[in-house]
Amino acid sequence: MYFCSQMKATAADKKPNIRAMFFDIDGTLVSFKSHTVPPSTVAAIRQAQAKGIKAFIATGRAVFQIPDLGGLQFDGYIAQNGVYCITDKNEVLLKSPVPKEDVEALLAYLDKEPCSCSFMTTDRIVINFVGPEVKTVTKLVNVSAPPVGDLREAAKEDIYQINIYMDRERERLLMRDVLVHCELSRWHPMFADLNTKGFSKQTGIDKFLEHYRFRLDETMAFGDGGNDISMLRHVAIGVAMGNATADVKAQADYITDSVDDDGVGKALRHFGVI
Q: DSSP assignment of 69-89, as one string?
């Protein structure tokens, strides 16, 4: 377990009064090895909840894609990287679909430069074809490949997230020339999430803070991938898992152990949350 030297004032100077915790799913709560939430993580979060601390999910997944998380109950969900936020009472706090002009521009691009691409609404996902990159990523997170379908038909609905399977060089050109109203976040070399520009897990956190009237200095977040950087920078204590990528660790206040080595519990104990 490693403690970063550059800390926000809340984390470094005093024992924090944490009232809200935000958790990524894949690689943070759920192990890439076992595809489950380790019992130690379940126990630690329940101990914090027993003290009245609220727990939220902050994920690139849509709500319908969230599996059972060790029987844990959460107070709300920042889904699809912050463009769709919903409470545990099914109250929608925020929704911002991808602009229609970007969806149409991407469809035209795919006609000329095919690659695996999926469109995600709030309740379903459709992919144009399942390439080898799709098989690699879905195996990693232990989910089935999305059903193959017609993206133009899917685009008649609001699209909240686009998942694109391509490398960084091709991605650069796509963002410059095609998806001009979108932002990209990446947690795997073969795969990236695309959402409306200006929205992220950070904006989702702000929406829940407004709803529950919490202060930013009462927040803590856990993550391991590129789409977690915005929220780790934003909260009072941003915790990178030991299995996080180097760029995520560089932006965190604290680096804990991996999800498989009680990383969540160790960080919560380190800061006196439990």
A: -TT---SEEEEGGGTEEEETT
**DSSP character at residue 31:** -
pLDDT in tens, 136-177: 888 887 778 889 999 999 999 999 999 998 888 888 889 999
**Beta carbons of 235 and 223 less than 8 angstroms apart:** no
DSSP string across 209-247: HHHHT--GGGEEEEE-SGGGHHHHHHSSEEEE-TTS-HH
Cα–Cα distances in angstroms (integers) from residue 226 to residues 123, 244, 246, 249, in the given order: 24, 9, 10, 10
pLDDT above 80: residue 91: yes
Q: Which domains are delineated in the chain?
A: 16-95+199-270 (3.40.50.1000), 100-196 (3.30.1240.10)
Q: The pTM is what?
A: 0.85
